[in-house]
Structure prediction request, 478 residues.
Amino acid sequence: MKQPKSTGNQQGSRSANRLGKAPATSARELALQVLQEVAEHGAYSQISLNQRLQQAQLSGVDAGLATEIVYGTIQRKRTIDYWLIRYVAKGIDKLSPWVLQLLRMSVYQLLYLERVPDHAIVNEAVNLAKKYGHSGISGMVNGILRAMIRQKADIIPENIEAKNAIERISFMHSYPKWLVKRLVATYGEQVTEAICEASNLPAPANLRINPLVTSREAVMETLEEEGYNVRLSLLSSLGIVALNGGHLASHRDHIAGRFSLQDESSMLVAEVANPKPNSQVLDLCAAPGGKSMHLAQLLQGTGKVWANDIHPHKQTLIEEQAVRLSLSNVEAIVGDALQISERFAPDSMDVVLLDAPCSGFGVIRRKPDIKWTKSAADIVEIANLQRQLLQEAAKLVKRGGVLLYSTCTIEQLENEQQITAFLAEHPQYKLDSNWSESILKVLADNNVIDDSFNGMLQLLPHHFYTDGFFIARMVRTD
Ligand SMILES: C[S@@+](CC[C@H](N)C(=O)[O-])C[C@H]1O[C@@H](n2cnc3c(N)ncnc32)[C@H](O)[C@@H]1O
Prediction:
């Protein structure tokens, strides 16, 4: 492939220091500010994006475009770089960081946003290069992008050259090699590829209706009348999937507590817990409160859900949810779950939920930064914390009570292996596969479980296009 010569001084210019100081005036400028902040200062994309969107006066369409560019560029970074290095003669590591981000986000648009005309992408990139750099930089950006456009027909997955399957999946689906290797070792090549592909797709909004005040049909009808593209959730009888539901958090029915926003996979947790009326329920890692609220709704105003989290500022988040949903049987408390047995009597809870902090590899479609920031060492560290949390949780469950463990990851060390090790050390607990008929049926019909199902469920992102999620239901049998 022909490599155009890069021109101009590629070091940053003084004006590049201005990037991000003033609110952005366009979608792409805002995207560039966020990408730079993430890459150079380790900011979380979600937080940086939300802050900058609040400061800038962008239209809804532009805010949507900026969001798409930020998440897409981070999500597809490895594939973008695979192509980009073939067009930057001196190597992309010689570029000023902001110029690299500008090129990455422009290549993302060229390769993945079909609705945006190529000339508009180049013009916008050149304008930003002129605003923050000198003419050498804008000339170089122009040259690289135009060369890529000329050869666009060759920039296709089939032309990716890789030494082996792991490298191919890594380049094609934009995943770090170490993670692909680990996934292939667990799930095999074919399933790993399906996981990576599904995790690159945008997540639709999922709603869980509040059964205490409305029905799924009523909420569906309202949303359909307003032009939302909605369908029933396969996994939860309270769930609705809205393909174009990006702004549903500010919908009046959400504010009024008629529904909550929660991934379909997470809706399974409370349904699998299935608390009996008047139960005492302890949610050890509860913030922002999605599962606590669901459990409280299933209790229909009876019993009590103790919603605990270690961070004091998150207590307010939980309390706000309870108020929004008019739930009086939730109490938000602050504490380290590693010492929770100092606060509650042993054997006192009907249900203990440990929705554990985890590596998050099941939610890459919502938080693509995870791909590039987490390491194999992080998995070992978090698995160690989960092990200690489980030991503490086990002290509080009554005889005959339920211990539920869940994570939003697909990493076995944190899931099946974690539970297997726990059960070996806690013979009083047994896995329980006695889940509701309707859940078992949908899982079996979609070949997610078979006759060997034992009470541990690993949902992968491509099974139902949900988050990747793990649930284990255990009962105390001594
Ligand atoms: C996966 S999130 C929980 C999501 C929540 N269950 C929901 O459905 O909305 C994990 C939570 O664990 C909390 N956490 C982490 N370590 C903790 C600890 N040692 N004790 C209590 N909470 C902890 C974090 O603050 C975070 O809010």
User: Anything to note?
Assistant: Residues 177-199 form the longest helix (23 residues).
